[in-house]
Amino acid sequence: MQPYYSDDHVTLYHARWEDVPPDLLRADVLVTDPPYGTGGWRRNGTGQGDNPTGTLVQEAWDDGRVEWLTLAAGRPVLTFWPSATTHRLLDAAVAQGYEKHRTLYMVKRDPKPMPKVRMSWSV
After folding, report:
1. Model's pTM, two decimal places?
2. Which residues form the domain of 87?
3. Does residue 53 fall inside a structural domain?
């Protein structure tokens, strides 16, 4: 497997977790942004902001699986994951023997199509 990027300090690979060869599993840390299983918003037309319409689409590859965590084998993991399903990831981490975890939430502008009315979210 060829690196996506490499320099003197870091080597990055871009692949599905099932395709990672065993010799790459000696990494010091696993950094991943896996499919979340939440679907994604697709705009029905062009434009941004002024077009509030969109459709939530669930792609076949967007499965939200957590089995990739077995690749880490106890090494540090940095992953990007939606807060709505963090419990699934943390449950899988505990099942893999991870006793400590930290969660950092980033508040960012919602990338989904935004209507021109004020919205509120429940937790």
Report:
1. 0.63
2. 30-95
3. yes
How far is residue 65's CA from residue 68's CA, in Å, rounded to a whole number? Answer: 7
Q: Which two tokens stand for residue 69?
A: 């965590």
Please name the residues in contact with 88: beta carbons below 8 A apart, sequence gap of 6 or more: 64, 66
66 touches 92 (CB < 8 A): yes
- Neighbouring C-beta atoms of residue 89, cutoff 10 Å: 20
CA pair distance 65, 118, nearest whole angstrom: 33
Per-position pLDDT tens, the chain of length 123: 888 999 998 888 888 888 888 777 777 888 888 887 777 777 766 655 565 667 778 888 888 888 888 888 778 888 888 877 888 888 999 998 888 878 777 766 655 555 555 555 544
Number of structural domains the chain divides into: 1
Which H or E element spans position 120?
Answer: none
Distance (Å, whole) CA 93 – CA 70: 9
